[in-house]
Amino acid sequence: MPRYNIMPKKSMGQHFLKDLDIANRIAATLADFDKLPVLEVGAGTGALTRFLIDKGYDLSIVELDREAVALLRRLFPDLAERITEADFLRMQPQEMPQGQFCIIGNYPYNISTQIFFKLIELRDRVACCSGMLQKEVAERLASPPGRKAYGILSVLLQAWYDVEYLFTVDETVFDPPPKVKSAVIRATRNARTELGCDEAQMKRVVKTAFNQRRKTMRNSLKPLLGNDFPHYADPIFNLRPEQLSVEQFVDLTKMIENCR
């Protein structure tokens, strides 16, 4: 990175990937979607970009760092008009590739969770989202029910995407090395077209339950349902939040809606 006269910015959560083998492996995660446009988020110094170009993807880039944008346009002049200096989290759908597309990136650590909340909003457009983020967050996104990592984002994302934890990445492949390990995941859109319940209500149920995740559902949901909810005897209320699958959260939300 010093040879490009650009240094990682802590304020942007930047850790530039310097292991090109890892970059190539990340690019390969979209192999099943090679006919779709690809949006790379946070391209930095272009370690991943070069492999996406080599693999022939219809590529666009969004990068917030002005210095990195200038560098990317110098390194990849044929792509210059498709490199946007912007905050991905503030982008509107019409500013992204048209129709179905994929998202990929070596995601800035400080916004990685927010990126996947935005993915949920874009679910009708994004067929696959893959990339690298801190290991703890990756485990949370991919965790099945019954594990400590399973939580709010696990449920909300897995309602719409099949999430795979692909491989772990050591700290030493970055400049500067982060204090934590990283991991690469892939989220592939599933066949679900609707939840069968009110989405906003399910989100409230999930968030309320996991806010007191050590309690049973009966106790964790009392702030939302009150003391006199008529179905507290249902066995589902004897479980803790991390024991419920996505489908059980859907069924629970339907039960609550029917009572109201």
Can you walk me through this structure?
- With 260 residues, this protein is of the alpha/beta class.
- It folds into 2 domains: 2-189, 3-Layer(aba) Sandwich (Rossmann fold), CATH 3.40.50.150; 199-259, Orthogonal Bundle (Helicase, Ruva Protein, domain 3), CATH 1.10.8.
- Helix content is 32%, strand content 18%.
- It has 10 helices and 9 strands.
- The chain has helices at 20-27, 49-54, 66-75, 112-121, 135-142, 152-158, 199-210, 217-220, 222-225, 246-259, and strands spanning 16-17, 38-41, 59-63, 83-85, 101-106, 126-134, 161-169, 174-175, 182-189.
- The strands form 2 sheets. The protein has a 7-stranded mixed β-sheet with strand order 4-3-2-5-6-9-7. Strands 1-8 form a two-stranded antiparallel sheet.
- β5 (101-106), α4 (112-121) and β6 form a beta-alpha-beta unit.
- The mean pLDDT is 93.
